[in-house]
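ENTRY TYPE: protein
WANTED: fold as tokens:
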Amino acid sequence: MSNYGTFWRLAGAACVLAGTAFAQVISSPAATPTPVNFTQSYVFLPVGLAATETAQINVVNTTVISATTNGTLNPVAAPICNGTISFLSSGGGTIGKAATFSILPGQIFSASLPYASLGVSGGARTVIRGQISVSSAPFATPNVIVSNSCSLAYSFETFDTATGVTHVFTNVTGSSAFAVPLLSVGLSPSVP
């Protein structure tokens, strides 16, 4: 009985100490969270592109904004999705220059690659793939650190250059959250 009581007293004391330490880290003015910048990428599966086609990648910022100030939308809390869209050859090299985007919630950005820009002679069908890279970093407002978490939905398509008729369409069901972790003094990121 003595060991049982000692165990629970020690466990209770440990919880109190941990809670006190956690409260000091969170509420201490000197404990400023350290932002972690990162880039996350999504690579589409390879698709064939013929001489009469154009490839296109579309992204939309699907982040839901709920922060308000006096009943009006607080624009500081609107996460902007920043990134690039690239098209890659079958050898893995970038075709042309990556298209840079910076979109607010609800905005759409598209990057196109007409077959003519591939530089392939003879009109041979060519296999390409697309890649989206999203860069993100948290930002601070007075008394609050906001995670600039960007939620994107995206699609990859090929269509007839002359008529616009879609040939291939692939998308991601729902959206992909490109979230930003925040580190605080005394805490470290966990790696899954």
